Amino acid sequence: MHRSAFSLSQLSRRFAPRFASRSIAHTVLDLSRVVRVAVGALIAGAVLIACSPTYDWRTIMNNDNGYTVDLPAKPDTDERTIDIGGTQMKMSMQTAEAGHAVFAIGTVMLPDDDPQMQQAALDFLRTGLARNLGATPESNATQIPLAAGGQVPGLEMAFSGKAGPQQEARTLHARLVVHGRHVYQAAVIADRELPVEQLDQFFQSFKLY
């Protein structure tokens, strides 16, 4: 049986009751987990955060995984082994909550830089993102900047859908990119469309080493 990169319902149940005092993505490892955690937390904590969204942007330099990004709050981190096409791989995640949204950077560490393995991991993440909001995994070409200058080709996704036991409306924006032995996933899941300047702050700051 195929397991989505973003299996969320279990984490929603685990973290939603603790939204007010603890990050909803404390042990999130991939976007489907982010989506499900966000869904449960957004439902449980909507009243608490609706009137006071805050974006305390700070630059995070992740030297272990080779990227830098601006996040709107102090991030939580986690790592776990996942299975992609029968191959065990490590996936790490940094997530930060702000207002009614979760911002996340996921990194899959590949066993090598074989093009077929790179594509398999990319497809796995892309399909998992879409499945959790009942959308088709459509994407468009984009460019992801390098910290040293230049760009590498990537994919961008943006769609809305319903998720969670109450089928609440959610929006998701994401960027996916392969760089050497890493596949990256930058994403934002929210219960409403975010201001363009907040999305731009996040995505434009995401740069690879």
From TrEMBL:
Domain of life assignment: Bacteria
The protein's name in its UniProt record: Transmembrane protein
Organism: Paraburkholderia gardini
